[in-house]
Structures are given as C-alpha cells and as structure tokens.
C-alpha cells in the first residue's frame, strides 16, 4: 500500500522542497488524451507517489542542458542556458512572475549598451511543458510496471549444459542490453531536445558458470 505523500510542484521558482514536476491535476489533464490512461486513472492513492518517483528517476537518469538556476533548488529544473531548439518553450511559470528571458549585452554606439534576447534558450524560471508531460507519462508507466527492478532471467543470451560428469556443468551468458530501460523510449523522445540519458549500453557479456 502506497504511503500518503504531499506533492510540492516545482513551478519555476527553484523551490528547495520541490519533489515533483507535475501535480495530480496536471497528470489528470495529460491522460484525458491518452489511449491507455487506465494505469493512471485507476491508481487512486498511489498517484502522488508515482509522480514523485517519476521526477526522482528523471533527475537521476537524465543529463539536461545548461545549469540549475539556483544552487539551493531541489530538482534539476528550472535551468539556465539550456538550449530550446524550436524557440517555443511552453511557459510553466509561477503565477504573476515575469519570465527570466535569456539575454546578453553588447556595446552599442556612443558608449551605450544593447540587450539581445535569446529565444533559443529556455527561460531560467520555466519548467518546460515537455518535462511536465514526460513526468506524467513515466508516472503511469511506473504504476503498471516496476521498471527499476531486475526481471527474472534478465539479459540471458545463451545457456549451455556440459556433458555428464564434466565441469562446468552449466554455462549461462548474459546480455546486458537485453532489458527494458528504466526510462521508456517514449519518455526519452519527449525530453530529447533538452538532454539525454546518462547511461549507455555496454558491449560486454557477463558469463556465469554453475
């Protein structure tokens, strides 16, 4: 049974106690257009814990562009200097707070200074819509499958048995690439323009003799 948990949503202000990029209401709205929403809608009291765990996994598994906006913020977002390739970041900003527009200053004529804004960077007090929606997607996945556990027979590539009376009696080869990723590929795609996974596939094969 899931333990009751209070969601503190990161709204772009760099909260020191934030534990989720999305609220239950955000996730309800996201799943209104989802063909496989049952994993979320039927989860009941486990929804908040799923969002917190999803946020935790995204922050652990992903290397996002730029740097954290504030040293004391709890989560990876908001961020400064993170590229926004399309220049169209959906704005999730705390109510009534103006955007921190990325900019730089260059010398102008007659000793003046000119401020140049850069729409190709995510504003420093924004949690992009893609991050919120990726959190919702991962939360639903976690409610239906434990993607952090090692499944039975994970990575078995081959198994061979020696002739009777010889050693070793059995050899099992494991393929480390043969497992579902912790972060589903659809979530990776949703976040691709803001960062990439820390983990990389290994080409080595583990051999176990029994």
The major β-sheet equals: 3 strands, antiparallel
The total beta strand count reads: 9
Distance between the termini: 38 Å
Count, helices: 5
- Percent helix range: 10-25%
Record the strand order, biggest sheet.
6-7-9
- Note the overall shape: globular
The helix/strand order is HHHEEEEEHEEHEE
Low-pLDDT stretches: 200-210
- The fraction of residues assigned to DSSP E strands is 15-25%
**What structural category characterises the helix and strand content?**
alpha+beta
Radius of gyration: 23 Å
Mean pLDDT: 79
What does the model show?
By secondary structure, the chain is α+β, with helices and mostly antiparallel strands. The chain has a domain at 24-149 and 190-197. The chain has five helices and nine strands, in the order H-H-H-E-E-E-E-E-H-E-E-H-E-E. The chain has helices spanning 24-31, 38-41, 47-61, 129-144, 185-191, and strands spanning 62-64, 67-68, 79-80, 103-107, 113-117, 156-161, 170-174, 195-197, 206-209. It has a three-stranded antiparallel sheet with strand order 6-7-9, with no helix packed on it. A hairpin with an 8-residue loop joins strand 6 (156-161) and strand 7 (170-174). Helix 3 crosses helix 4 (129-144). The radius of gyration is 23 Å and the shape is globular. The two termini are 38 Å apart.
